[in-house]
Amino acid sequence: MNKLLAEEIYYYMVLGRRFEYAAKEHYMRGDISGFLHLDIGQEALSVGAVKAFEKGDLFSTYREHVMAIARGMEPRAVMAELFGRVTGVSRGKGGSMHLFDPSRFFYGGDAIVGGQIPNAVGCAYARKYRGEEDGVMVVFGDGATNGGAFFESLNIASTWRLPLIFLCENNRYAIGTEITRVSPFLHQAEKAAPYMPTMEVDGMDAIAVYETVKEAQKEIQKGRGPIFIEAFTCRYEGHSMSDPGNYRSPQEMQICKSKDPIERMRSVLLEKFGTDKQMVESLERRAEKAVEEAVEFAASSPEPEPTELYEDIFCKRCGNVVS
Amino acid sequence: MLYREALNRALDETMEMDPDVVVLGEDVGLYGGSYRVTEGLVAKYGERRLIDTPIAELSIVGNAVGMAMGGLRPVAEIMTANFSLLAFDQIVNHMSKLRYMSAGKITLPMVVRFPQGVSRQLAAQHSESYEQMLCAVPGLTVFAAGDVNYAYHALKRAILMDDPVIFIEHELLYNKKGEVDFNTELDPFRARIVKEGEDITIISYLKMVDDVMEAVPRIEEGLGVSCEVIDLCSLNPIDFETIAKSVEKSGRVVVVEEDHRTGGYGSQVVSRICEELFFTLDAPPLRIAGEDVPIPYNRSLELLSIPTPDKIAVQITEWGRKNGL
């Protein structure tokens, strides 16, 4: 990890948090609707993992704004998608939960808990088949590890020795249900351990996340099969905007927030990498500005035309027209 | 050539043509396919391209979606329609919607094949038909192969086109014999006129087309009429142009399906005919469909649960008499 990279990670973490607070504000104002899942508190994990896994296919969940932006998708196009505007990454047809950019090997954006895991397995098969080396990373929450799609995927990825990182964001809550009430394990890695090597990392520490994912990517490139990473983290907000999150005690939230990943990364920059305070503040201002610009862009973008309704269902050259 | 051989040939030719075509499913490789559709292909293309999967249908389709995202052209085989229910999340939430949700940025050139329908005493969990559910999912192209020539051409086209296709076969058709015209391209989106006629249009698909054809001489003799028989082939989109042309000529229409009557695919066909062709009709449309019961094991009960050539002949003849023929 060098200073420049550490500063970049910090920038994206701040950008991510500001972006999410702006999204929250505009949801409350009614500019954004539907389900909005905020990533506040989990930035170390989202940014650290994506920056480490620079190349390779990335599959994520419905809580993916920060990952999408860290992958290089423009904040303005992401915000416009949240606003449902035609300038959004999915032309207003996907929304918050469905951000895609195959040109950056970012495949969403999946709102079926665990549904993206088998897709990542298939994609890893395709990469291996074609002799492409970067591999695939799939991100999911602790809640997804209780579903069939997850277990089928462990079995297949391991049997076929696929180049795949399973990255479990364990924030200990499946929507509002604490993980130990629906799983015999607190550490979901125990489920993966019979199938593949597992690693554990503090998901509130961006540098640790970065280094763990880097190491994992090197491992999967050796052709010996997949690897499972469990990152413990904490989401500050409810599951979505419709969840006040009051199943967690104020004490629990206080402990959780005392490990704030952005505060922590800021100290690391100042103390370990010798970034001066001015530089840190200028990164913060830049992030702030990018978010303001994103909101302005989204708010001033046009709505999709009614004809958009029928676009992109089928590919035109297939000759599949509804008679 | 047998129906299963025509399917095998379509797979073989597309695999030969494009190294990105892979086949995955339970027993498709070393075993040669439960209905021998993939027989011999593993020897030619190896286990990398004939991928034996666990019996985990969610993953068979879910992995195929990911393979297509990764640039391959997967053909997923599900052993029978009832098992496809385990993959419905992937079919409905992923395969059909990723293109739309991504505003066209994700393209899924993939096929999911499975046989369906009543075979011989396979009972309630191996005998059903699901075209009605699949045709209600926007984003899926649904082909139903009732004929050997269509099976060959439509499967080839399904594999080579860039949209996701549900390719429905029938349990009882795998050993059906037929000619394949290798020299004439066929448009798989078009319905097939199996037999021309003037007075009654009988619309059907999959194995019911054969049952209708068996019943037709008795109907024609009994009523002194001629029947036009249409095999729909493409269920979604439907070739309504071919239907309209025939119904405008005959003024009388019957839809025959093996599926349960309530919510069956035929109800949609009849509804559209009534909405668009009402004033060309000389008689109320007739639907002949399966009973609203789980398919029973016992052979005589099983035959009571679905249309048969005999029932088709009797019901159409009675309906014709009642309606002035």
Summarize the structure.
In chain A, 44% of the residues lie in helices and 12% in strands.
Walk me through the topology:
The complex is a heterodimer of chains A (323) and B (325).
Chain A: H1 3-28, H2 43-52, E1 57-61, H3 65-70, H4 75-82, E2 106-110, H5 116-129, E3 136-141, H6 148-159, E4 164-170, E5 173-174, E6 177-178, H7 179-182, H8 189-192, E7 198-202, H9 206-220, E8 227-232, H10 250-257, H11 261-272, H12 277-300
Parallel strand pairs in A: 1-2, 1-3, 3-4, 4-8, 7-8
Antiparallel strand pairs in A: 5-6
Helix pairs in contact in A: 1-2, 1-11, 1-12, 2-9, 4-12, 5-6
Chain B: H1 3-17, E1 21-25, H2 41-45, E2 50-52, H3 57-69, E3 73-77, H4 81-84, H5 88-95, H6 98-101, E4 111-116, H7 131-135, E5 141-144, H8 148-160, E6 165-170, E7 192-195, E8 200-204, H9 208-223, E9 227-231, E10 234-236, H10 240-250, E11 253-260, H11 265-277, E12 286-290, H12 299-305, H13 309-322
Parallel strand pairs in B: 1-2, 1-3, 3-4, 4-6, 5-6, 8-9, 8-11, 11-12
Antiparallel strand pairs in B: 5-10, 7-9
Helix pairs in contact in B: 1-8, 3-5, 9-13
